[in-house]
Write a structure and sequence with these properties.
heterotrimer; A mainly alpha; B alpha/beta; C mainly alpha; A: mainly alpha; 11 helices; B: Rossmann fold; 2 domains; six-stranded mixed beta sheet; four-stranded antiparallel beta sheet; about 25% strand; globular
Chain lengths: ~300, ~250, ~325
């Protein structure tokens, strides 16, 4: 192998790891993007549902002896139900416009969820072991944690499934109709509140899946959810607010930028370029890379 | 009167992606004129309105205000120059009183040597809103809300007033009253008025000249009676003649 | 007119009572709580300008608080520059950051600006944690204490800060009143209510929003210097963390957004609640209950009393005047 190739290995390794990590960031973001696209709700409590999803994995593996991967459906359902409750009690009244009050309500809700987690699970970090924990795959000169590969695949499947759901099913079509023009949708007889409720539950269920898959390689604590929100927000904005595939690709983009920064500059400052990129996108390309809603 | 028109739009075009909203729209409005702009829903009236008031950039063409090209000016600059508008769905400052709503425009657009308080008082009187001055917009009738919006539109400095379906939603009597006030405004102050409506019936007695927009372009320009007998217009409104022209 | 006189008398009474606190024989703890209350009222008054009057969703105002604290602290510790001068460096830095942030995001509507404020505070958080030599990193920055001194704005006891903070609150109250009555305030409220309609009334929307942000940023940063001198320490979490950002928002939210009395009433309520829960949770041995209280408070206010305490008061006054 020539000297040039050897020098490039760590960089490529960083990019490839970034893609894997970024896929899961994408999974974090598609739910957020869905809620914004349909209801104009920026759900800052989304990350806290991800955190609860992580604890579902912890409980499954530590208390019940079940592999977290098998707990994915349960996690989806639990968070979807929690999402229904959130929608009914809080977000229902904020549909249609991102207002200061909506953002603050979501933050307040997130804080409350975080405190409940702290009271139930304690402040210490917890992790869950899946069947793939600790195994690594070597592909040429690159190595990957198998748990991350699995997580990436799950993220990809979830994204494709949501896109198909929105594009190919009758329900998906009505969701998109409500997202486009709520008044017109109601005139043709769609019941927007019920459709919003479903979309919001789906958004929260996705947060649950994201959390449970993440905890197979990343320990959790009650503040983890909020700590994950910035990346999800940036991925969603870069992908184009409201776009599902955009959010997924935005997540990968963020993962690559983050891992490359850590590799080439400084891992303690790995997120700083992302924050700068967010400002740049807002200023020069608010519809994101993949054309979401510009408002 | 100078030979520059109060408002002149020349070869205006607007595309949204592949959709053509306006193509080659041109017309002039003389100073002091009361002109109607009509067309069925989707003809491009709203798009044209937003382009003239500065909220949408045209894909091509220019807008000139008293001979000066203002195509690149932002909306607030046009307003300060005297190009004023109302909104199809009334947009007031909902947390501010009727008087404050008018004061916003008066304090922006009045020449600095004039007293804005006096201006607000006189606008309130002209629009017969003095008793409502301290009320919130949510506490007054739709007809009064429309009057507040027109008052806000003309406060300070106004040379051309563009009204976007201001008469819709009003009862016959309320509409009559508002028309009276708009015509009085034109008579007393010489303000040029452009009225956009999708039905002609209300406009016929109000304007001496009509421009008809259909399928993204101007299909007729003339007096109301000329328009009513114009075969192109009748063709365009085929089958809906009765509802549109009367 | 009557209400104006009422509020004047109330205000004067509050000032006199606060000023007499140190000579009334209460202990320093009570005085320190009063200082904390006044500082958060002042910070709340600053946030109220951009968010309450201007309607801009700033969720990261800790940026300007942090810049005020760090600038005065670093300049004093490393260069011996007294806070009387350091405060202006902090204000200039805040102005610069606000200018960049505002120019990049305020042409867009609502949500983008909110996201940008979060991004900037997180970026500063990571930078402050990393550049340990300059900022003290995670452990934070402690002011070198040189003994009681007016020139260095230092005092072992909280009493001088009580008067300083009182001056801030009164000054910021008058600034708020002035803004509300001025043409600039009218513009900001118009933009808050409806940007498109404001532009159609001749208001330069972008410039108005930017100016509101700049004024608020400088007010926050200057109050940040007082914060630094009073607490004598700052760390990344306290400056740029979420719970601080919320503490900057709650006074105006609880009291009433966009009103001159709102942040004052709300700040007092917030600190009393926070002190109360802290006392309670120490006894119970549970940490961080105040965060839960803030969360629930936030939720309760925005859902059930979006106009705050002053809103309840005003609705009643309005109802009375009409009956």
């Amino acid at each position: 192998m020539s000297g040039f190739d050897t020098a490039m290995v760590p960089v490529l390794q960083a990019v490839l790891s970034g893609v894997l990590v970024g896929g899961v960031y994408g999974l974090l973001s598609i739910g957020l993007s869905l809620a914004f696209g349909v209801m104009r709700i920026v759900n800052f409590a989304h990350g806290d549902l991800v955190m609860y999803g992580m604890y579902v994995g912890v409980v499954a593996s530590a208390a019940l002896g079940i592999d977290p991967l098998l707990a994915l459906p349960a996690s989806f359902l639990i968070m979807a139900v929690l999402g229904l409750a959130q929608y009914q009690f809080v977000f229902r009244r904020f549909v249609g416009a991102t207002t200061l009050n909506q953002l603050l309500a979501a933050i307040g809700l997130g804080l409350a969820l975080q405190m409940v987690a702290q009271l139930v699970f304690g402040v210490d970090a917890r992790s869950a072991t899946s069947m793939f924990a600790g195994s690594y795959d070597l592909v040429g000169p690159f190595f990957f944690a198998r748990a991350q590969i699995v997580a990436f695949v799950v993220a990809l499947i979830a994204t494709v499934a949501v896109e198909l759901l929105l594009r190919r099913t009758q329900w998906g079509k009505s969701v998109r109709a409500v997202a486009d023009n709520i008044e017109a949708a109601e005139i043709v007889g769609l019941r927007s509140q019920r459709i919003n409720l479903g979309a919001f539950a789906l958004s929260c269920g996705l947060a649950g899946i994201a959390g449970t898959i993440m905890v197979t390689y990343y320990p959790t604590d009650p503040t983890k959810g909020f700590a994950l929100m910035p990346i999800a927000i940036i991925a969603t904005t870069i992908g184009g607010l409201g776009s599902i595939t955009g959010a997924f690709l935005g997540g990968i983009f963020c993962g690559v930028v983050q891992q490359s920064t850590a590799m080439l500059w400084n891992s303690a400052l790995q997120d700083v370029p992302l924050y700068v990129l967010l400002l740049v996108f807002i200023a020069f390309r608010p519809t994101g890379l993949f054309g979401g809603r510009s408002e | 009167m100078s030979d520059a028109a109060a408002l002149e739009v020349t070869h205006i075009a607007k595309r949204f992606g592949g959709l053509v909203a306006l193509r080659d729209v041109s017309f002039r409005v003389a100073e002091g004129e009361v002109m109607g702009l009509i067309g069925p829903n989707g003809a491009g009236k709203s798009t044209l309105f937003e382009i003239v008031s500065g909220n949408l950039p045209p894909s091509g063409g220019r807008v000139a205000f008293f001979g000066r090209d203002c195509t690149a000016d932002p909306p607030h600059v046009r307003r300060r120059a005297g190009l004023c508008r109302s909104f199809q769905k009334v947009r007031l400052f909902e947390t501010m009183s009727v008087g404050e709503n008018i004061a916003v425009a008066a304090r922006q657009c009045l020449p600095p040597d004039k007293d804005w308080r006096a201006e607000v008082t006189s606008i309130l009187e002209r629009m017969r809103l003095t008793p409502q001055a301290d009320r919130l917009p949510s506490e007054i009738t739709l007809a009064d809300r429309k009057k507040v919006e027109i008052g806000r539109a003309i406060a300070g400095y106004c040379r051309v007033l563009m009204l976007d379906e201001s008469l819709s939603g009003l009862t016959h009597d309320e509409a009559e009253e508002l028309i009276g006030e708009i015509l009085a405004l034109n008579r007393d102050t010489g303000i040029t008025v452009i009225v956009v409506e999708h039905v002609l019936s209300v406009l016929a007695k109000m304007v001496k000249r009509l421009v008809v927009l259909h399928n993204a372009t101007v299909i007729a320009d003339g007096t109301p009676s000329e328009i009513a007998h114009d075969p192109v217009v009748i063709e365009a409104y085929l089958g809906t003649k009765a509802s549109v022209l009367r | 007119m009557n209400r104006r006189r009422q509020s004047l008398i109330l205000g004067a009474a509050a000032i006199v009572l606060t000023a007499l606190l140190p000579v009334s024989g209460v202990n320093d703890y009570i005085v320190a709580v009063a200082v904390r209350m006044l500082i958060f009222i002042a910070l709340g008054q600053a946030w109220n300008v951009v968010a309450g009057i201007g309607g801009l969703l700033s969720l990261g105002h800790g940026v300007f608080l942090g810049l005020g604290c760090y600038a005065t602290g670093i300049l004093f510790n490393d260069y011996g520059l007294p806070p009387w001068l350091g405060v202006w460096v902090g204000a200039l830095l805040s102005l610069a950051i606000a200018l960049v942030m505002g120019t990049m995001t305020l042409r867009m509507r609502g949500v983008f600006f909110a996201l940008a404020t979060i991004a900037v505070s997180l970026a500063l958080d990571q930078l402050a944690r990393h550049y340990v030599d300059l900022t003290g990193g995670d452990n934070g920055l402690a002011l070198k204490f040189l003994g009681n001194s007016l020139w260095f704005m230092q005092s072992r006891r909280p009493m001088p800060f009580l008067y300083a903070a009182l001056v801030f609150v009164v000054a910021y109250y008058w600034i708020t009143r002035w803004i509300l009555a001025s043409r600039f305030g009218l513009e900001m409220r118009a933009v808050r209510d409806d940007e498109t309609a404001a532009a159609a009334a001749g208001v330069p929307v972008f410039r108005t929003k930017l100016l509101g942000l700049l004024v608020s940023a400088v007010m926050t940063s200057v109050a940040g210097t007082l914060y630094m001198q009073s607490y004598q320490a700052i760390d990344p979490e306290t400056a740029f963390g979420l719970s601080q950002a919320i503490q900057l928002q709650l006074p105006a939210l609880i009291g009433g957004l966009g009103t001159s009395w709102g942040p004052i009433v709300g700040g007092a309520v917030m600190i009393l609640l926070s002190e109360g829960t802290n006392l309670g949770s120490t006894k119970l041995g549970i940490a961080g209950v105040d965060i839960l209280v803030y969360g629930l408070l936030l939720l309760a206010v925005v859902m059930y009393a979006p106009k705050g305490i002053m809103g309840l008061f005003n609705t009643r006054a309005r109802a009375r005047s009409e009956s």
